[in-house]
Task: inverse folding
């Protein structure tokens, strides 16, 4: 047998790789003509793995030539990056070295009749297979497949190779191990021999023939040939798209498995598990959806996740559609969702309502209202979050997510009352928020719920959205107007808009006629007390007067209707006021009447709303804010006047108010009656459909200034041209021709950037490489603290001055610094009260007042009726008065006594408290960005908490639960539920029996909200720990 080994090169059939072929693609291949035998008679020699590399490189080139000769109609690269192994020069260099060593060993072994007892390999770590017996059966080399040479290179050589090649190599090793262990007579154990010699026993060379090995090359050739012969009628792009869809379906399926062990189906309920439908039935009492809701949820825009605006009348069921879409986002797509609502009360109500869903379906419900909310929110690894936020908090939340590069985690943004885009400064904030979401994330879907608008096309262009409109109402609405003593039905589709219906039939005395000129008593007594009625009044004072006037002419029969329940309500109202009760409510509640406006405390409003919903109260006199807030339907709605304060009623406001008429499941129809005068008739008929306009130019372009500042601060834009590119995506750009009459949008943008530079909020970068525009430290603090640009410089000056002589012996100085600037104009001080309270301050506190520019002498002159000097800062004087009010509230925590002391309404005091806690939170974030204000961080954190609740310290944990007011917190505390954990673990059935005047539904919501809040806090602590200990 010849010992000569012939080596030939085969030209590669692959694409030319000039820079790599010379030393990285050797094409050696053994001659297959010689039938060599495996030497040895008593044991089989395990040949070096390096020998396999010859076959590997040869097969690479042979397969390449074979593939080029094969004809195919597919123009795409069938094998993608199969030859990316060539990119690793270090890896193939080791292969070449191992191959050369193996070649020398193979030459010697082929020319001898017996193998040497010992062969030494100095540099390569091999694995040999030790035989468990001395005499092994004869096996051909085809049947005895050795391990790959890749293992011989050691683990370090595989560190940098592509994952696809690593998986392929591991597959070969597994195959080799299986083949080596197939013979029952041989038990082979892999043993490492680093840098050691090894011995093998001889075997009879006449019984074993050496053939070409089955190895990596064979496996590779079979795999590549299979790929080449597979049909390729579908393009790679289509395959990738199909893979993405499959992946999303798999994600949805896995999410459903996590939701419920018993329910793994996506279900017929709009892709959600059947458990969701059961929860809607049990928690909301809804068995079936309306036809329009089914249609809307099955729209192509919804299914394909395009932006959508849908408009329906009030009480048509818009919110349920939004909630179902939110649940799909959380459960099926495993993404967070943001729900934007206009008022704090609506946020709290929605948090209470959806907390039970969160507990059952395992997602977080987080409240962002007032001073509540984390920025950025906690990054949760195992759960998804639903953020329920007011307009202002939603903007801050989106800013923080953009800064943290996490906005793509929010898959859905839902905006209630989208038509509020046209509502002054709050509308500007909505526009900023949505414009940023559209510009930064193309993965986030936007859903807007809106009243019917005359220019919805503008909103569609702004949001790149489709529109769905329906005039559905669950209960028929009949609209009427009253002119003198005649009732006319509103018929907008007819030529005559008003059609005579009937005359009022109520006997009025002359004295009664003088008091009730609008015949309100006649209108309400047609429905109460057996049915409900809402009377909308133009002012808060008018609400109280109308309620008292109606009671004056009601019969004693009204006093007997639900007598015990009304007595209980009076007791609860008295308890909420720490023994004090509003004299108007004391008179009206026994008749089943009450008033509802912002002059009441939030707890009083809550008690009144619950009593009305349960039928204890049959009539509410209220302002227009009730129509935009909680849903309180009535059989009849009466509009006392077509005016809100001094402004004529907008069509959207009118539709909101009359939309409360008709109670689903109770009434067959609803009625609305608008009381008008002759002069108002033409105004009402000619009132156009309301148009929603951008408010970025509101108050001399303040919205544009704030928007540009945040864009630069968040690194969304860093040049004037980029800022302009963003501005083209706003509603202001859509309406540029109507709103930018004197200057173009480009000129407005340029002017605003210059103003920001002049204010010291924005500057040009020192180096061109750093970008064109940058925010200053003050600019960053301003947008992160959500501070009004009008007050940012004043706030900085006040904080700097306060830091020089900060008085910490009392809360007064800190409270003064966080008293909202924008509330100064809402009231005028009572100077005698001011002077009396000032003289009761300590010497240190009076010294602090003089330091901020309000000495005692100034207050004394005003109390005596004298004029102030012209250079006196009236804003500072009025702020100090409000600070004294807040200080009294922090000391006494009794709203009624403070209201009497300062001659202010308790509702105004609560609004002041809420605004101050929110502004204190803003100032806290403002100071966190300015190193010179570091002492304020700890001080303002505690002050924010105290202003938020303003109750005894032991009640704060209970009042953190959404919907738990001070009175209820006291009841819970006295009943033994003293901590959040106690409340979260409570049994609602026992809670109802233990706590006075607590209904089952309320108990369920309180317990669910407590569980959600407790889970949220625990999860936040866990995530914080994991961030600090990443290797835990």
Result:
């Amino acid at each position: 047998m010849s010992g000569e080994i012939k080596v030939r090169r085969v030209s590669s059939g692959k694409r030319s790789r000039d820079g790599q072929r010379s030393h990285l693609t050797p094409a050696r291949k053994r001659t297959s003509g010689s039938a060599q035998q495996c030497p040895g008679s008593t044991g089989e020699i395990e040949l070096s793995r390096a020998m396999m590399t010859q076959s590997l490189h040869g097969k690479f080139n042979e397969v390449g030539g074979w593939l080029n000769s094969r004809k195919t109609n597919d123009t795409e690269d069938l094998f993608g990056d199969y030859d990316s192994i060539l990119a690793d020069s270090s890896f193939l260099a080791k292969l070449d070295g191992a191959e050369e060593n193996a070649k020398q060993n193979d030459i010697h072994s082929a020319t001898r009749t017996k193998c040497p007892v010992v062969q030494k390999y100095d540099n390569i770590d091999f694995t040999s297979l030790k035989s468990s017996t001395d005499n092994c059966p004869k096996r051909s080399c085809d049947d005895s497949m050795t391990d790959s040479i890749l293992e011989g290179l050691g683990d370090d050589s595989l560190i940098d190779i592509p994952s696809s090649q690593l998986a392929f190599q591991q597959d070969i090793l597994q195959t080799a191990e299986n083949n080596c262990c197939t013979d029952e007579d041989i038990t082979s154990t892999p043993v490492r021999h680093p840098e050691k010699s090894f011995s093998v026993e001889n075997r009879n060379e006449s019984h074993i023939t050496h053939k070409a090995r089955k190895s990596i090359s064979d496996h590779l050739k079979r795999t590549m040939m299979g790929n080449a012969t597979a049909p390729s009628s579908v393009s790679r792009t289509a395959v990738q798209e199909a893979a993405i869809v499959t992946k999303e379906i798999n994600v949805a399926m896995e999410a459903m498995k996590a939701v419920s062990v018993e329910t793994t189906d996506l279900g017929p309920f709009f892709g959600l598990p059947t458990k969701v439908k059961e929860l809607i039935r049990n928690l909301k009492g809804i068995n079936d959806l309306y036809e329009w809701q089914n249609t809307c949820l099955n729209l192509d825009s919804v299914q394909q996740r395009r932006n959508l605006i849908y408009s329906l009348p009030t009480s048509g069921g818009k919110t349920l559609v939004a909630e179902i879409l939110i649940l799909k986002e959380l459960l099926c797509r495993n993404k967070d969702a943001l729900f934007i609502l206009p008022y704090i009360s609506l946020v709290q109500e929605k948090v209470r309502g959806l907390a039970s869903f969160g507990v059952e379906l395992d997602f977080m419900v987080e409240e962002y209202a007032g001073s509540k909310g984390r920025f950025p929110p906690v990054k949760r690894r195992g759960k998804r979050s639903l953020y329920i936020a007011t307009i202002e908090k939603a903007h801050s939340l989106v800013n923080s997510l953009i800064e943290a590069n996490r906005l793509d985690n929010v898959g859905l943004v839902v905006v209630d009352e989208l038509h509020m885009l046209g509502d002054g400064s709050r509308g500007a904030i909505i526009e900023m928020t949505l414009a940023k979401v559209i510009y930064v994330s193309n993965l986030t879907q936007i859903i807007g719920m809106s009243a019917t608008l005359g220019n919805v096309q503008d909103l569609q262009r702004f949001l790149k959205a489709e529109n769905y409109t329906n005039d559905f109402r669950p209960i028929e609405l009949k609209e009427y107007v009253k002119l003198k003593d005649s009732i006319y039905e509103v018929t907008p589709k007819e030529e005559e808009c008003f059609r005579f219906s009937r005359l009022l039939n109520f006997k009025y005395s002359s004295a009664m006629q003088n008091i009730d000129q609008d015949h309100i008593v006649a209108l309400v007594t047609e429905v109460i007390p057996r049915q409900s009625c809402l009377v909308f009044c133009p002012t808060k004072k008018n609400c109280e007067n109308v309620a008292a006037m109606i009671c004056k002419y009601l019969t004693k029969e009204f006093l007997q209707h639900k007598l015990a329940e009304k007595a209980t309500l009076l007791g609860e109202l008295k308890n909420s006021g720490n023994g004090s009760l509003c004299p108007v409510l004391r008179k009206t509640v026994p008749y089943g009447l009450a008033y509802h406006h912002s002059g009441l405390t939030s707890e009083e409003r809550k008690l009144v709303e619950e009593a009305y919903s349960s039928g204890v109260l049959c009539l509410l006199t209220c302002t227009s804010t009730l129509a935009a807030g909680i849903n309180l339907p009535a059989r009849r709605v009466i509009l006392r006047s077509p005016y809100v304060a001094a402004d004529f009623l907008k069509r959207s406001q009118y539709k909101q108010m009359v939309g409360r008429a008709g109670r689903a499941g109770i009434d067959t129809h609803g009625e609305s009656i608008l009381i008008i005068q002759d002069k108002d008739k033409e105004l009402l008929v000619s009132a156009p459909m309301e148009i929603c306009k951008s408010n970025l130019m509101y108050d001399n372009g303040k919205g544009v200034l704030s928007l540009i500042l945040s864009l630069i601060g968040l690194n969304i834009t860093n040049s004037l041209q980029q800022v302009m590119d963003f501005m083209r995506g706003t509603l202001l750009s859509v309406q540029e021709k109507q709103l930018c009459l004197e200057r173009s949008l480009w000129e407005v943008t340029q002017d605003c950037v210059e103003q920001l530079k002049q204010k010291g909020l924005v500057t040009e970068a020192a180096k061109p490489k750093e970008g064109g525009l940058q925010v200053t430290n003050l600019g960053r603090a301003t947008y992160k603290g959500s501070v009004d640009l009008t007050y940012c410089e004043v706030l900085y000056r006040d904080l700097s001055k306060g830091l020089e002589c900060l008085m910490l012996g009392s809360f007064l100085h800190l409270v003064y610094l966080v008293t909202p600037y924008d509330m100064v104009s809402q009231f005028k001080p009572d100077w005698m009260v001011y002077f009396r309270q000032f003289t009761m301050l300590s010497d240190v506190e009076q010294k602090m007042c003089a330091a901020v520019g309000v000495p005692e002498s100034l207050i004394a002159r005003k109390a005596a009726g004298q004029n102030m000097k012209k250079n006196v800062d009236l804003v500072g004087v009025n702020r100090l008065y409000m600070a004294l009010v807040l200080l009294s509230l922090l000391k006494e925590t009794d709203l009624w006594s403070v209201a009497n002391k300062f001659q202010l309404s308790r509702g105004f005091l609560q609004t002041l408290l809420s605004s101050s806690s929110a502004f204190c939170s803003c100032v806290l974030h403002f100071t966190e960005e300015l190193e010179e204000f570091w002492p304020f961080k700890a001080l303002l954190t505690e002050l924010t908490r105290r202003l938020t609740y303003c109750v005894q310290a032991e009640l704060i944990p209970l009042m953190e639960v959404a919907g738990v007011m001070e009175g209820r917190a006291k009841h819970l505390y006295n009943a033994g539920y003293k901590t959040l954990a106690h409340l979260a673990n409570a049994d609602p059935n026992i809670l109802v029996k233990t706590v006075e005047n607590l209904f089952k539904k309320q108990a369920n919501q309180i317990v669910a909200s407590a569980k959600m809040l407790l889970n949220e806090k625990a999860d936040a602590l866990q995530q914080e720990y994991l961030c600090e200990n990443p290797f835990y």
In short: The mean pLDDT is 77. The first strand starts at residue 36 and ends at 37. The chain is about 50% helix and 10% strand.
